[in-house]
Amino acid sequence: MTSQVSSEAGEALVGEQRSAPATGEHGSAKEVRRLDRVIIRFAGDSGDGMQLTGDRFTSETASFGNDLSTLPNFPAEIRAPAGTLPGVSSFQLHFADHDILTPGDAPNVLVAMNPAALKANIGDVPRGGEIIVNTDEFAKRAMAKVGYETSPLEDGSLAGYRVHPVPLTTLTVEALKDFGLSRKEAERSKNMFALGLLSWMYHRPTEGTESFLRQKFAKKPEIAEANVAAFRAGWNFGETTEDFAVSYEVAPATRAFPTGTYRNISGNLALSYGLVAASRQADLPLYLGSYPITPASDILHELSKHKNFGVRTFQAEDEIAGIGAALGAAFGGSLAVTTTSGPGVALKSETIGLAVSLELPLLIVDIQRGGPSTGLPTKTEQADLLQAMYGRNGEAPVPVVAPRTPADCFDAALDAARIALTYRTPVFLLSDGYLANGSEPWRIPDVDELPDLTTTFATGPNHTLADGTEVFWPYKRDPETLARPWALPGTPGLEHRIGGIEKQDGTGNISYDPANHDLMVRTRQAKIDGIEVPDVEVDDPDGASTLVLGWGSTYGPITAAVRRLRVAGRPIAQAHLRHLNPFPKNLGEVLERYDKIVVPEMNLGQLATLVRAKYLVDARSHNQVNGMPFKAEQLAAALKEVIDE
Amino acid sequence: MSESLLHLVPKAEAKQSMKDFKSDQEVRWCPGCGDYAVLAAVQGFMPELGLAKENIVFVSGIGCSSRFPYYMNTYGMHSIHGRAPAIATGLATSRRDLSVWVVTGDGDALSIGGNHLIHALRRNVNLKILLFNNRIYGLTKGQYSPTSELGKITKSTPMGSLDAPFNPVSLALGAEASFVARTVDSDRKHLTEVLRQAADHNGTALVEIYQNCNIFNDGAFEVLKDNEQAKEAVIRLEHGQPIRFGAELDKGVVRDPATGDLEIVTVTPENASRVLVHDAHASSPTTAFALSRLADPDTLHRTPIGVFRSVERPVYDTLMADQLEQAVEQQGKGDLTQLLTGKDTWTVVG
Q1: Which has more confidence, A255 or A194?
Q2: Could you tell me if the ipTM is greater than 0.85?
Q3: What SS3 state is found at A482?
Q4: Handedness of CA B316, B321, B322, B323 (dihedral sign)
Q5: B334 min Cα distance to partner chain A (Å)
Q6: pLDDT attached to residue A28
Q7: Which of A495, A501, A509, A510 to mutate to test the interface with B (most CBs of B within 10 A)?
Q8: Cα dihedral sign for A7, A9, A14, A18?
Q9: Within this chain, domains A29-252 and A538-644 share the same CATH topology
Q10: What is the reported pTM?
C-alpha cells in the first residue's frame, strides 16, 4: 500500500516481533502472541513447490486482510540439479496489521526444506529468528553436497536461532499412508504439510487453500485429497506437538486501507488487467503480438485467457514479428501491444523506430531483468532505461512510463495507453521482474471511474488545396497535440501510404528535402516533449535539504528507508517519477530546491545521467545491481550518510 | 471447397478501372525494370476483383519492389527490411474485412525476412504474397542474393558467390504453404491468371514472379522469355492437364517407378499414358515439390510456371476469429468488473 502511516517505523526493528498477551482461541493451553508484522521465507529445491506454497500463504493472508508484499526468487533453470545451492527457490512474504511497502529485508521465519535451502538463506535470518527445518533431508550426502561437513542441526552453528527440527517428509508420507500413493508421490505433498504448519502458526484461514487444491487437481481427485490431507496434517502437527508452543496473530490491516473491496495482485496480472481495461475504455480491440520471454510471458498467458473481451493474442515466431504484428494491428485500428524483456527490446528496436516514423499508437511493455545479453532472466534490474530512451537509430523519441508497485502496473498501463492514443506514438511501459512477480493488496477500482480513453479516427478530408480540392493529408497535425490523424483502412476516400522513409510534412509523401527532414525531426521531438504529464509530487514534511529521487519499482524500498530516516530524526524529501520521457514540467524546479540529490537505482546511474544532463544538477547515484530489490535498512544507511555529511 | 474469404471484404459500389488503382505518385523504378510490368498487371487485375479499394492494403518491406505500395491507390505501408509478412499478419488477423497483399523481393523475403515468410506460410494467414525474384540485390546496387546462382560474380563476390541458392517454390512447399505459384513479369496473361487464383485462395498464397533487373542482372530470365528458347525451357502447369512441353509438345514429365522421382521423357504413343497429369489440389505436396526441382538452377531450363499447389487448409485468421466467438459463447461477453474482482476478495469498511 502506498499511503504513509507512522507505524511503518516498525520496519526499523528488523527481526523483532512485538508481542502482546492474547487469549488462546483454540481452547488449548497454547500461548497466542500478537504481532504487528511478520516476514516469512519459504525455501527449498526448485522442484519442491516453494512458489506455489508462497502463493497460497499469500492468498490466505490477503483474504485475512493483512497488508502484504511478496518477493519470489527462483533460478532460471526449470529444474536445477537437486539439492544444490543454485537450485534453491524461495518465496518471501511480509505481512502486517498496518501499511507496509516492501517484502522486508530479513525473514523472521525461515522454512528450509533441505540443506541447500538452509545454507543459501541462513545469512539473511537475524539471530533469534525462527527456523523450521525438514530434518529428513539432512542426510550426510545431501549436506556434503552444499559443503556442510557436520550437521548444522547438531554442531551448534544454529545456536542463537530458534530451530524447529521437523521430519516433514516422514510426517507427510505417514499422513498419506491410506491413499495408496507411492512414497515418491506422497513426498510431493510435503510443501502442503509445511503450508499447513505455517497456516496454524499464523492463524491463516484455510478454506481457500483447500478449495484451490480441489480445483487444481480436479482431474485427479485422489491427488487433490492427498494434498488436502497433508495440508491438514501440517496444521494438526502444529496444534498438537509440543515443539510449537506458541502461535501468532497478525490482525487485519484495517486502518491502513481506504474503504473498498480488495484483492491480492501481482504486477504482471495488474498490467494485463490494465491493458484489458484500456481496451475497454478506448473502445478498441486489444491486440498482443509477443514472443515468450522471462519475466514477461505471464502477460501473454493472462491475456490469452480473455478472448471473450475481444482480445487477440498472437505468439509470433520471434520478437521482431511480435512487434511487427502489433504494429500491423495498430495500422488497422487495434489497441496494439507487444510484451518483452530487455533482450527482446533490442530485437524490436528497428520496428519501434518505424512506429515512431509512422506515428501510430503502440505499447511496448518491457519487464526488465538483469542484463546485459541473457543476463539474469529471473532477477530484477532497472537497466533498460537508457535503451528505452535512446536505443534506436536516428532521433526517435519514445515516451517512457514506469509503474512503482505491483498494483500500480494497472494504472500505469492505462496511462501509457492514454499517451499512445492521444499522441499517436509508441510508448514504453517499463516494469521489472520485482514488480512483475511480487504482489500486494489492490483496491479494486470502480470501472465507471476509469479514465475515458476514447479516440477519434479520421473520417474525411482534412485539407483544402489552393485550387479548392478537398484532400486527406495523413501527416497534417492536430495543432494542440501535434498528433497526426489515424485513418483506418476501410475508410473510403482516405487511401494513403505510409512508410519508414522520411515524409513530407502534411502530405506524408516521400521527401528527401533537407529542410523538410529538419522540420520533421524537430516536430516529432516537439510532439513527445509536449506530452501532458502530471507534476512530480514532493513529500517533504520537514523542509529537508536532501532529496531522494527514484523511479519505478524502487518506490517501496525508498519510501520505507525515508520513513526510517524521519523516525530517526533525519529530515529527507522524496520524489518518485512515473514519467521518464518527458519528465514532469516541474522537475527542474524541484531539483533546484535541494542541496543534495540522491538517485537510488538498480543500475549504474541511468536516471542520474539523464537528470544531470538535462538539468545540470549534481545528482549522485546510489546503485545496486545484484538482481534483488534494495533493502530498506541498507538504503536508509546510505541516505543517512549523505544527509549527515 | 469452402466459401471464399473474399466475401468478408466489401465490394466496390461502382465499376472500377485500372486508373482507379494508380496513385498520384511518380513511379521511380529504373526505366525498363520488370517491376513496371508487374505493377501494370496488378493495377489491371484489381478492377476484376471488384473489391472496395479502401479495403485493400499493400504492405512491403525494403528493396526496389517494396516501393510498390506507393504506386497503388489503396491503403499501404512501406515498412522495414524483411518484416512485411509479420506486419501484414497483424493487420490481416485483426481485420478480416481487408484484402491484404505483401510485396517483397528475393532479399527481403528469403534473406533478412526468411523467418517471417516461412511462419506466415505455415500459419496460413490470409495474405497474398508477391515475391519479385530478380536473383540480385538492386537497391544496394548489385550484390548477390539468396536466389543467385552459385559462383555469381557481383560487387561483393568478385571471385564468385559461395552459397547455394534457395528455390523459393521448394522452400514455400517445405514451409507447409497451401498455395504456391510461379509466373514471369513479361507474361501479362499468365501473371494475371496466377493473381486471379491467388486472390481467390483462402490462406497464404505465395506467388514467385521472375522479374528482370535490367541494371544489375539483365536477362536473368531471358531463356524463359525468348519465344524460341521458352518452348524448350518453360513447363506450363495447368491443373488437370498432362504436363507436356517443347516446341512440338513432344516432352513430358513422368514418374520414375523405381525412385518415385520425376523425369523428363520424349513422349511416344507407348509412354503417353505415363505423362503426369497436374493435380494442384493433391493433398500431399510431394509431387509439387518434385516439380519444383525440375528446373536447372543455373540455366533455368525445364522451369515449371503456373500453380504448383493450391489446397484447402485451416486459415489462421479464421481460427483466431472462431476462438474469440467461442470464448464469448462459453464465458459470455467479457465483464470488466468481474475480471478485476476475481475470486478472492475482502472488504474494508470505513
Answers
A1: A194
A2: yes
A3: coil
A4: positive
A5: 5
A6: 54
A7: A495
A8: negative
A9: no
A10: 0.94
Predicted local distance difference test score (pLDDT) of residue B1: 52
Distance from CA of A367 to the nearest CA of B (A): 21
The architecture that CATH gives domain A538-644 is 3-Layer(aba) Sandwich (3.40)
List Cα–Cα distances, B237 to A573, B162, B279, in angstroms: 79, 32, 9
Residue from B59, B346, B347 whose CB has the most chain A CBs within 10 Å, to mutate = B346
Q: Nearest 5°: CA angle at A346, between A628 and B145?
A: 155
- pLDDT, tens only, A414-444: 999 999 999 999 999 999 999 999 999 999 9
pLDDT value at B281 more than 80:
yes
Provide Rg for chain A, Cα atoms.
27
SS3 (DSSP) at B223: helix
**Among A230-234, A272-276, A364-368, B341-345, where is mean pLDDT lowest?**
B341-345
Q: Which CATH architecture has domain A262-449?
A: 3-Layer(aba) Sandwich (3.40)
Domain boundaries, chain B: 5-220+315-331, 230-303
The bridge status of strand A246-250 relative to strand A426-432 is: unpaired
Q: CB distance from A329 to chain B under 8 Å? A: yes
Window A:208-247, CB contacts with B under 8 Å: 208
B346, A65: Cβ pair inside 8 Å? yes
Q: Is A306 close to B339, i.e. CB distance below 8 A?
A: yes
Stretch A7-32: mean pLDDT:
48
The pLDDT assigned to A22 comes to 43
Phi, psi of A22 (to 5 degrees): -145, 155
Q: Tell me the domain boundaries of chain A.
A: 29-252, 262-449, 538-644
Place of cell 514532493: A538
Q: Looking at the complex, report in whole angstroms how far the Cα of residue B54 sits from the nearest Cα belonging to chain A.
A: 5
Give the three cell numbers for residue B6.
473474399
Task: Give A317-369 pLDDT, tens digit per residue.
Answer: 999 999 999 999 999 999 999 999 999 999 999 999 999 999 999 999 999 99
Instruction: Compute the distance between CA of residue B235 and CA of residue B300 in angstroms, rounded to an integer.
Output: 11
Q: Residue B350 pLDDT > 70, yes or no?
A: no
Chain B contact set for A510 (CB, 8 A): 25, 70
Out of A328, A447, A499, the one facing B88 most closely (by C-beta) is A328
Q: A29-252 adopts what CATH topology?
A: Pyruvate-ferredoxin Oxidoreductase; domain 3 (3.40.920)
Q: Which residues of B touch A307 (CB under 8 A)?
A: 323-324, 326-328
Phi, psi of A44 (to 5 degrees): -165, -165
CA distance B320 to chain A (A): 8
Q: What is the pLDDT of residues B12-22, one digit of tens each?
A: 999 999 999 99
Give the three cell numbers for residue B292.
519444383
Number of H helices, E strands in chain B: 11, 12
Indicate if the pLDDT at residue A6 is higher than 70. Answer: no
Q: Which fold has domain B5-220+315-331?
A: Rossmann fold (3.40.50)
Taking the CA atoms of residue A249, residue A250, residue A251 and residue A257 in that order, the dihedral angle to the nearest 10 degrees is -170
Q: Residues A401, A429: contact at Cβ < 8 Å?
A: yes
Q: Side by side, which strands form the sheet with B262-266?
A: B244-245, B251-255, B262-266
pLDDT of residue A255: 83
